[in-house]
Amino acid sequence: MDSSSEASSMAQGLRIVRLVADREKWGRRLLGVSQLASELDMEQSRVSRLTQELCDLGLLERVERGPFRTGQRFFSLAASFNTGWIRESRTELEALVASFGLRSRISVRVGYRATLLRASSNDALPGSFVKPGMVTPAWCTGSGRALLWDHNQAAIQELLKDVNFIGVGGPGAAHSPGEVSELMDRDRARDFILAAEEFEHGVYELAVPVRSPEGTILASLSVLGSRPEIEPRAGKIAKVLAEAANRLGTSHPGPEDRS
After folding, report:
1. Model confidence over 159-172: pLDDT tens digits?
2. Count of domains for the chain
3. SS3 (DSSP) at 212
C-alpha cells in the first residue's frame, strides 16, 4: 500500500471512530456497517473492512454483529492524550485567544496531511466542521507547513510525489512540491509560517512547530484570522506563539519518562 492509500485509510478510519464516539457521547442510536456507510458516504465494503481493522485494534467493539461502540483501546488512548503537552495545550490555546482574539489550533502530521488534535473554544463551536480528528492538507495550511519545517527539498518532493494539487486550497496554495519548498524557504528565513489564503479564501494562518527537548517536531501550534488581524502584528504573534510552543515542548516527557 502506498503512502497516499495509507493516509486515505487512516483519515477514513478516524472519521468512523469520530462518528461512533460522537453518537455514543450524545446518546444517539448506534450504527452498523450499512448505516455508517450511508452517514459517511463511503462504500459499504470499505466500511466493513475498516471497522473490522478498528475492532482488531480495540478502537471499536461490536457484539454479535450489532451496532458499533467505542472500544477499550479508544479510552486508553484518550487518557494518554490527556497528559503532558496535549493536556497543557488547552491552556495555551485559550491564552492565545485572550491575547489576540484569534482562533488557535494544535495539529500533528500523518503522511502528507495534518490532523487537528485540539482547537480553541472560539474555533470548535457546536455544529462546526472544526473538530479533533479533522484532516487538512499539510502543504497548503499554516499548521501543516509548520510540521514540514525540517523537510528539505528532496524530502518534500518524496512526501508529496503522489499528491494531486489541482483544485485543492485557496488562491495562495502551492501547486507543486517545488512551490511548497519555495514557501518553506521563505518562511524559515523569518522563523514562522505565514499561510496567506493557502487553504481558505480570506484566512491567514500563522504557525510554528512544537519540538520535544530532543528537537523532534511533535506538533504545530497556529492561530487563524483575517489579513488585518494577523499581518500587521505577525512578528508579535509569532513571538508569543513560539514561547507557547516552547512551553509545550518542554512539558513533553523525555525518553526516560515514556512508557
Report:
1. 999 898 988 899 99
2. 2
3. coil
